[in-house]
Amino acid sequence: MKSEDKRGKIIAFCGIDGSGKSTQLKLTKEYLSKEAKVLVAKLPYSPLNKIGDNKFFDLILKGYSGLRIISYYYDLQRKQINNYDYILCDRHLLCYLAYAYAYNVPHLKIVRDLLFMVDDPDLIFYFDVPVDMALERINKRSFKDRNENARVLSKAKEGYEYVMGLFDNVYRIDNTLSEMESFEKVKEKIKKYE
């Protein structure tokens, strides 16, 4: 348990759609909640996947996306994160930047640098899977986003590789393993940070 004057440990769960990040977050929450107070914070999907051919519309959506990411962090701070032992982030700025890269949003390093005032997570899990495996998982869902396709996921995966270097404490997990094998790796890493 943390002391009362320190914020909880922030752990982010990242990866392309279908990578298994939500499943691992759920398992982690169940595991940590047995002995700690846990908050789950979810970054909303960026509207970048709605960008069309109109340059003015594109500019508005890109600006709106930026405001949403900033408001996410503002809201997280307002939730009195000092009252929690762990804050589990379903997605993170890293995810936003990876998908921004996929949709050719420029100057990602500048965006990252402008958000230097926001606390980075203590630990970022990046769940790495091949695109075809992610698509196979997505196809089992009842709801599918029209942009969950091989081209976008491949570009997002490329984006993750590009933007991971802008963050510290990124831990890559091969999520082609079974759910429990991957979760054991998550637990092992969390224990090292306690």
Detailed description of the structure:
The protein contains seven helices and five strands; from the N terminus they run βαβαβααβααβα. It is of the alpha/beta class and 194 residues long. It has one domain: Rossmann fold (3-Layer(aba) Sandwich). The protein has a five-stranded parallel β-sheet, covered by helices on one side. Strand 2 (38-42), helix 2 (55-78) and strand 3 (86-90) form a beta-alpha-beta unit. Helix 3 crosses helix 6. The longest helix has 24 residues, at 55-78. The N and C termini lie close together (9 Å). Mean pLDDT is 80; it is low at 1-5 and 47-52.
User: What is the element string, with H for helices and E for strands?
Assistant: EHEHEHHEHHEH
Assembly state here? Answer: single chain
How many β-strands, per DSSP?
Answer: 5
* Main β-sheet, spatial strand arrangement: 2-3-1-4-5
CATH topology: Rossmann fold
Envelope shape: globular
| Secondary structure tally, helices | 7
Percent helix range? 40-55%
* Parts with pLDDT < 50 across at least 5 consecutive residues: 1-5, 47-52
CATH homologous superfamily label: P-loop containing nucleotide triphosphate hydrolases
Q: Briefly note the structural class of the backbone.
A: alpha/beta
Identify the CATH class: Alpha Beta
